[in-house]
Amino acid sequence: MAYDLGGKVALVTGATAGFGAACAEALLGAGARVVATGRREDRLEALAAKGGDRVHTVVLDVRDRGAVEAAIAGLPARFAAIDVLVNNAGLALGLEPAQRASLDEWETMIATNCTGLVTVTRAVLPGMVERNLGHVVNLGSVAGSYPYPGGNVYGATKAFVRQFSLNLRADLLGTAIRVTSIEPGMAETEFSVVRFGGDAERAKKVYEGVTPLSGADVADAILWCVTRPAHVNVNALELMPVQQAFAPFSVSRR
Ligand code: NDP
Ligand code: 8X3
Prior knowledge:
Helices cover 43% and strands 14% of the residues.
C-alpha cells in the first residue's frame, strides 16, 4: 500500500537493524524526513547514503540521558519538529530461567527497553504538545502480554512499554497527539543473534521451519497506524506469524 507522509519528520531509535531499519526505509519511501539513530555509525551512514538530504543521522545510545537530551535539543531546523517518534531500540538478552539469569543482562534490558524509551519520549514530547501534533509509536511485544519460560525480564520490560503507552494516552487526552503500542510476535531480525550473545547458529534455529514476521511486515503495520485519519488512535496492534500461537497452561504433576 502507498502511504503518504510527505512533509513529516520521523525519528526512529535503533534504525541500524531489523524493524528500525525497515521502518526508516519505509518512512523515507512514504516521503518523510527521517532522523535515524542507533549506536552503529556505519549502518547509519549506509542509510544516509540511500536517503540523501531527507536523512539526518545521530549516533545515539538511548541509555545515555545526557546524549539523548542533547541530540533532541540539537536537531537541525529541518528535522527538529518531530511528527512521528518510533521508539524501537531494544533487545532481549538470554533465555535462562530467572534463578540462573544474569543480573547484568536484566539491567541492560531495563536500561534500554524501559529507561531509554522513556528518556527519548520525555525529550520529544514537549515539542509535540507545543505544536499539538505528533504520534508516538512504541515497540512492545507479544512477550509483554503472554509469559514464556526464560522471558522473565524481557517480557516484563515489554509489559512496561504497553502500559506506558496506554498511560501516555491518558496524559495526552485533550491534545491531538496519538500513541500506539506495536506488539509483534516472532520476527527474524538480528534479535535472536543479540539474545544469544552473537551465536548465529542458535539464532537461526529459532526460525527453522517457520515463516516468521519480517522487518518489512512490522514497518508496514507502523506506517498503517501513523497514516490513519487524524481522529483515529490505534492503541495497540498485536501481530504474529500464522505459524505462532499460544502455549496451553502448563501443569507440573507429581
Ligand atoms: P534488532 O536486534 O534487529 O535491532 C535492534 C535495534 O535496536 C538495533 O538497531 C540496535 O542498534 C538498537 N539498539 C539496541 N540497543 C540500543 C541502545 N542502547 N541504544 C540505541 N539503540 C539500541 O532487533 P529487532 O529489530 O527485532 O527489535 C526492535 C524492537 O522490536 C526491540 O525493541 C525488540 O524488543 C522489539 N521486538 C522484536 C521482536 C522480534 O521477534 N524480532 C518481536 C517483538 C518486539 P545499535 O546496536 O546500532 O545501537
Ligand atoms: C520478541 C518476541 O516471542 O521472542 O519480542 O519474545 S519473543
